[in-house]
Write a structure and sequence with these properties.
The structure holds two protein chains of two kinds.
Chain A: E1 5-7, H1 9-15, H2 20-27, H3 31-38, H4 46-56, H5 60-63, E2 64-66
Antiparallel strand pairs in A: 1-2
Helix pairs in contact in A: 2-3
Chain B: H1 3-36, H2 45-66, H3 75-81, H4 84-114, H5 119-146
Helix pairs in contact in B: 1-2, 1-3, 1-5, 2-5, 4-5
The chains are: A mainly alpha, B mainly alpha.
């Protein structure tokens, strides 16, 4: 993961039965953005991280975490 | 955000990612022909056209690298096309283009010790190197971002 930021986006998204496009629609960003964040290619801003967490109905620290 | 906006922006984004390296290639080829037949007199019509073509293409590519485009698209589609990731890629590409231009400047500086280089040629080369490098980097980052998922 980039810059030591891990995420559980894939698992949480799959748990809610959402595709990347569906989550992108909920968050209001492109599917590419969800894809890069999920794969750890892109470190999201605090604003985007909060919006993703809200779309998933989870606290942000459950979606994103610091890797040891 | 509507589903069809997401899909349409995805389609346009992929097209852009494919187009960027092609534009960079076209730009480099255009400059190679420029340097191959060196301009002696900018007042000549044929040379004025060459300089004009380079200027127009350089400005167009610079706009792609600095300004949000897709002016004819819906605001929602534009917002998706130029979201956080795209802006970060564009910034990273501009940084790489700047560094390439600086290395080009250092190279030209030492080149002048062995071969005279006119100010016009030096500027032309530095602009070309900077824009082409940034375009290629932007394209690579965008293509990578679209993969998978």
């Amino acid at each position: 993961m980039a810059d030591g930021l891990g995420n559980r986006l894939n698992a949480l998204r799959a748990g809610r039965g959402l595709t990347q496009a569906a989550l992108a629609e909920l968050v209001g960003v492109s599917r590419k953005t969800i894809n890069t964040v999920e794969n750890g290619v892109f470190v999201p801003s605090a604003l985007l991280a909060l919006r993703i967490a809200r779309a998933l109905g989870r606290p942000v620290e459950e979606v994103f975490f610091l890797e040891d | 955000m509507a589903r069809n906006d997401i899909e349409y922006a995805e389609h346009l984004g992929r097209m852009r990612a494919r187009l960027l390296p092609v534009l960079a290639f076209m730009f480099i080829v255009q400059q190679m022909s420029f340097f191959a037949s060196h301009i002696e007199d900018p007042a000549r019509l044929v040379d004025s056209v060459k300089i004009g073509a380079w200027l127009v293409m350089s400005i167009m590519l610079l706009l792609i690298l600095t300004v949000d485009g897709a002016w004819l698209q819906r605001p929602s589609v534009r917002a998706l096309l130029y979201d956080e990731v795209t802006r970060a890629h564009r910034a990273a590409a501009a940084r790489v283009g700047f560094i390439a231009s600086m290395f080009g400047g250092v190279f030209l500086y030492f080149l002048t010790f062995v071969e005279p280089v006119s100010g016009r040629d030096a500027i032309h080369l530095l602009v070309t190197v900077g824009i082409a490098t940034a375009l290629i980097r932007f394209g690579v980052l965008e293509r990578r971002a679209h993969k998978g998922g």
